[in-house]
Structures are given as C-alpha cells and as structure tokens.
Amino acid sequence: MGASDEYVFLGCYTGESGGEGEGIVLLRRDVTTGSLTRLGVVARTPSPSFLAQHPTLPVLYAVNELTAGTVSAFAVADDASLAPLAVQPTGGSAPCHLAVSRDGRHLLVANYVSGDVSVFPLDADGVPGERTDLLGLDGKGPVVDRQEGPHAHMVAPDPNGSEVLISDLGSDRVWRARLDPVSGRLTLVGSAVVAEPGTGPRHLLRTSDGALVLVGELTGDLSWYRAGAGGELARDGGVVVSATRPNQPSEVTTGRDGRFVYVANRGPDTVTVLRWEPEGGTVIAEVATGGSWPRHIALLADHLYVANERSHNVTIFRVDPDTGVPTAQGEPVAESSPTCILSWVPKPGRAA
C-alpha cells in the first residue's frame, strides 16, 4: 500500500435481512484524491450493518442485524485481511449499532427491535466473552407504527468517563446509563434528553463546544441540547434539515475543526450542510448524494463518502475547506446494499 493510501471497511445488508451484499468489503482509499478501489470481500458474515474499531487493538467489530442478533469480532492484519475471533449472541433482536468503551474493556451493542443494550467483556486481545448485561429500556411515543415500544438505535460511551448515552427512537429519549468497568453491568441513571414527542432519536453527536446534537428520524430535524446550571441538558435549538418530505435522516457527523455538521437524508437523498456556531446550527447547503437512501456518511479529511443503500453504490465528494460544501467527485463505486463506512486506523496491539 502506498504512502497516500489507507484502508476502508464497508458494512452491508446481506440476504438474511433482505439485502444484496456478501459481507464486509475492503477498499483502498487514496488520501490525496479520495478515490476508492475495491479489494474484495474480507468476511462473509450475515448483515454486518454497523462496524466499529477497538481503540487500541487491531480488532474490528460488526453487528449482525438479524432477528436473533449476534456480534462478530475479527483480528485485522497489516494488509487489512480479517481473521474471525468470536461470534456472540446479543440476547436482543436486530442489533444496529455498537461501540467500545473508552478503556477498551467492554463492547456495547444497541438492539433496535427489542429495545435493549448488550454488554460484552473484552479480553486483553479484544475478544468478546459471554454477555455481562442486557439493559432493557421502557417507553413509547405517538407514532404508533414506529414507537410502540423502545428502539435502541445508538450507544455512545463517554470518551472521558463511564457514562453511556443511548439513543432510543421509540421513547423519544436519550438515556443516560453508567457502565461498571469491573462487572460489565449497565445501570440506567435517567433521561439525558427528553425530545419532542414523535422525534424518533436516531444518532447523536457531541460537538467540540459541549452541545449534544440529535438526529430526529421521524421529524426530519436536527436538534441540539446544552447543559444548564444544574448540569441537566435542555433543548437549545433545532432546524428541519430538508424541505423535501418525507425525510428519514440517518447519520450526523462533523469535521475535524467542528465548523460544519453534515446530515444524511433518506428520501430526499441528499446531504445537508450546517454551519456550526456557538448559538447552534444554520443550514447553508443541501447536496444530492448521487444515489438512493443514504444510510451512512463518513467524513475522512477533505472527502465525504456516502453509502447509498438502495442504489447499491458509494459516492465520493470533495469538501471545500472554507465553505464546508461537498462537491461530487469521480464515479460512484458499485457496492451492494452498503450501510456503514469505517476508515481503518492501524493499531499496534496483539490481535493482528
């Protein structure tokens, strides 16, 4: 691999979940031009719809978004080939997101359909053991066909502590839980955010200036929350991210300097760009993705990548560093039912 190259893993839906993908795909990314070169399928595993990396070890984790959910772990070699390490049942249904705790000792998984969160201990090599907890959530919302009960959509461990935020589409809440680093048990502390009824919280983002930004899948908006004098989070503003309806936004991300926030819009098939300032976000552009149903976006240096699930392609954009606006670049890369883009940052640990 050349000095200007790095690796990218791509998750997908396979036939088990109605998709057309084959498993985890590896691509080479030219960091100068942003172009992607497909290297092939490196793990044939069912519906690896979301991927995550261990913070200090060369280990890749994937949810298997199945009715009886599982999570898979792989050792990553220097050439980014994958060797299976373990598969564990999540105890829940349709796991859709996962993350590793800041100390690298536990893996957390959000089970969407069953509305709960699984916890797995990780050994010194990053291999997940038997589940230590399954935290059930409670509540529902006014959108009867989507909010009949809790639907955990994202787990976000605090990068500086033991707190874990859980985005729950079903109850219109972001829950606050505490992870015991020894027992691997999650304790529900309460609601970090109580969103407007019918919001459908999907993914969240912590900004560099201390705000919590939340994508509303059901309302098609972006809202932000800040801590008051007592430390509780209160809504500080919000904006509809696309005038085109219906819209089910999927992902939110930001650049290294935090000046711009990006939201992927399913339905309009666009990416909305917001200028982020101390008073909140302002929409400055909305750009067509060049595909259908953008399930995930990733901002890697000066390039934005969009996984268009239903048009079976990944589109590439160069982001203007001054305006933050992305411009389409090159031809889309054909990939079946893509759902997650993960840039691989090599880790020196033992699992490789």
Count of DSSP strands: 29
CATH level 1 name:
Mainly Beta
**Total domains, how many?**
1
Compute the number of helices: 0
Q: Helicity range of the residues? A: under 10%
Strand content: over 45%
Low-confidence stretches: none
Rg, alpha carbons:
19 Å
Q: Can you write the helix and strand succession as a string?
A: EEEEEEEEEEEEEEEEEEEEEEEEEEEEE
- Which class of secondary structure composition applies to the elements? mainly beta
Under the CATH scheme, which architecture would be assigned?
Answer: 7 Propeller
- By CATH, the topology is Methylamine Dehydrogenase, Chain H
The termini sit apart by 17 Å
Which shape, going by the Cα principal axes? Answer: globular
Query: What is the fourth-level CATH superfamily?
Result: YVTN repeat-like/Quinoprotein amine dehydrogenase
Mean pLDDT: 96
Q: Quick one: biggest sheet?
A: 5 strands, antiparallel
Give a short synopsis of this structure.
With 352 residues, the chain is an all-beta fold.
Write the layout of secondary structure elements.
Layout: E1 5-12, E2 24-30, E3 36-43, E4 51-53, E5 59-64, E6 70-76, E7 82-89, E8 95-100, E9 106-111, E10 116-121, E11 133-136, E12 152-157, E13 163-168, E14 173-179, E15 186-194, E16 201-206, E17 212-216, E18 221-227, E19 233-240, E20 248-254, E21 260-266, E22 270-277, E23 280-288, E24 294-300, E25 303-308, E26 313-319, E27 326-328, E28 333-334, E29 338-344
Antiparallel strand pairs: 1-2, 1-29, 2-3, 4-5, 5-6, 6-7, 8-9, 9-10, 10-11, 12-13, 13-14, 14-15, 16-17, 17-18, 18-19, 20-21, 21-22, 22-23, 24-25, 25-26, 26-27, 26-28
